[in-house]
């Protein structure tokens, strides 16, 4: 039994005058511990699908099952990390990273200690009493990841979490997130526009076509790349080969979208 199944998902956005088909018959199966990327042109429904998997949006048709349980609302097994960190500026980093535990009534001494230790593992020692404005963008995103992991979700949904960072910080954070999720044996779904990021971090890549969003092709990242950290994967010859394949695929999909 697959850890996550997405079964015949269709989703339509309705307005007063129009109905727009955003997702058309999406079927996916994802195994526990896999790192998956959704890649595709703007408007292909990647974030809509992520929101459906998170239980934030109910699909027009179809269903999502996590650990064989149908998702119909936000689930404590699922953590969501966005492009913006959304740290509360008036709260300390300690209060920010433990707020999820507080909301669900699980802020015990042991779990608080575990969360603060995770801050240290993320290279954020001695920042507990600081406020978000005192941290760099990369540090804030690391704190946001700790907040997401604090409630110990089984699966993380990552919606372009590195796109607002400078390139050097982005590469460092890719490695850190990749290794942390592997160490904690988390399943992850990443929405990205960055082909290199998808290849460097993923076990499998779903490429979407747009208008309506469909899975156009699935790429299995070669095992030799999956054994490397994202930074070192980018240096491997197979990285360049796969990048060119996916680039051509996306170029063809975008050309079709423009014609239609």
From TrEMBL:
SUPFAM superfamilies: P-loop containing nucleoside triphosphate hydrolases
A Pfam family it matches: ABC_tran
GO function terms (MF aspect): ATP binding
Record keyword Mitochondrion present: no
This protein's UniProt keywords: ATP-binding, Nucleotide-binding, Transport
Entry-linked InterPro entries: AAA+_ATPase (IPR003593), ABC_transporter-like_ATP-bd (IPR003439), ABC_transporter-like_CS (IPR017871), ABC_transporter_ATP-bind (IPR050166), P-loop_NTPase (IPR027417)
Domain ABC transporter: 7-235
Source organism, top-level taxon: Bacteria
Record has tRNA processing as a keyword: no
PANTHER family: ABC TRANSPORTER ATP-BINDING PROTEIN (PTHR42788:SF21), TAURINE IMPORT ATP-BINDING PROTEIN-RELATED (PTHR42788)
Record's protein name: ABC transporter ATP-binding protein
Species per Swiss-Prot/TrEMBL record: Metabacillus herbersteinensis
Lineage per the UniProt record: Bacteria, Bacillati, Bacillota, Bacilli, Bacillales
């Amino acid at each position: 039994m697959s850890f996550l199944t997405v079964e015949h998902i269709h989703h339509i956005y309705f307005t007063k005058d129009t109905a727009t088909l955003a997702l058309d018959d999406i079927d996916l199966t994802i195994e526990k511990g896999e790192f998956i990327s959704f890649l595709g042109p703007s408007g292909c429904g990647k974030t809509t699908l992520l929101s459906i998997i998170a239980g934030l949006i109910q699909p027009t048709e179809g269903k999502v099952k996590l650990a064989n349980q149908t998702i119909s609302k936000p689930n404590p097994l699922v953590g969501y990390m966005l492009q913006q960190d959304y740290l509360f500026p008036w709260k300390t980093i300690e209060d920010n990273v433990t707020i999820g535990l507080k909301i669900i009534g699980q802020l015990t001494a042991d779990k608080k200690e575990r969360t603060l230790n995770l801050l240290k593992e993320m290279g954020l020692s001695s920042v507990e009493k600081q406020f978000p404005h005192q941290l760099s963008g990369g540090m804030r995103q690391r704190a946001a990841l700790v907040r997401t992991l604090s409630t110990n979700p089984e699966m993380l949904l990552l919606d372009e979490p590195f796109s607002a960072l400078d390139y050097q910080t982005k590469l460092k954070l890719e490695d850190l997130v990749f290794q942390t999720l592997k160490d904690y044996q988390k399943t992850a779904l990443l929405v990205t526009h960055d082909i290199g990021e998808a290849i460097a971090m993923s076990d499998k890549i779903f490429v979407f076509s747009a208008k309506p969003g469909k899975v156009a092709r699935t790429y299995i990242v070669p095992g030799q790349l999956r054994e490397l950290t994202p930074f070192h994967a980018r240096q491997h010859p197979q990285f360049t080969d796969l990048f060119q394949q996916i680039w051509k695929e996306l170029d063809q999909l975008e050309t079709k979208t423009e014609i239609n």
